[in-house]
UniProtKB/TrEMBL annotation:
Gene3D superfamilies: Electron Transport, Fmn-binding Protein, Chain A. It comes from the Bacteria. This is Pyridoxamine 5'-phosphate oxidase family protein. It comes from Actinomadura rubrisoli. Pfam families: Pyridox_ox_2.
């Protein structure tokens, strides 16, 4: 028997998911780095139904998401959440789709992404969501 004092879990629609992540901030990119699944935190900005993020040209994320095919994309996922452990509430949003490195022209037109870490972050990527899902846990 489930207690009415338990938090309620609800599935979020695409519009609500995109609204929750719209302010940008910090999220996690999930990808295959050649040795298996990897997850890396990044600063991001939202542009429509895509997220943009920057990384180091010499970094593992850049090397893993590069493709030799012009206009090609690499399958990846992007996750953002907000959790309040005191109230046992929060939400989580997952975008899955294709990521590609932005050309200089695309980068010049892109929304601004300000990475927190120092150093060069000259590899800009766009992950375009083909699938968006999310859940919210609300206090009773």
């Amino acid at each position: 028997m489930e207690s009415s004092m338990q938090p309620a879990l609800e599935e979020l629609d695409r519009a609500e998911c995109l609204r929750l992540i719209a302010p940008g901030g910090v999220g996690r990119v999930a990808f295959d780095d050649g040795e298996g699944p990897a997850v890396v935190p990044v600063n991001y900005a939202v542009d429509g139904e895509s997220v943009l993020f920057r990384t180091s040209v010499s970094g593992r994320l850049n090397r893993s998401l590069l493709t030799a095919v012009t206009g090609g994309q690499v399958r990846a996922a992007f996750e953002v959440d907000s959790i309040d452990t005191a109230t046992r509430s929060g939400w989580s949003v997952l975008l899955r789709g294709g990521a590609h490195r932005l050309s200089d022209e695309e980068r010049d037109k892109a929304v601004r992404v300000d990475p927190w870490p120092g150093g060069d972050r000259d590899a800009w990527f766009r992950l375009t969501a083909s699938d968006v899902s999310g859940r919210r846990l609300s206090p009773p």
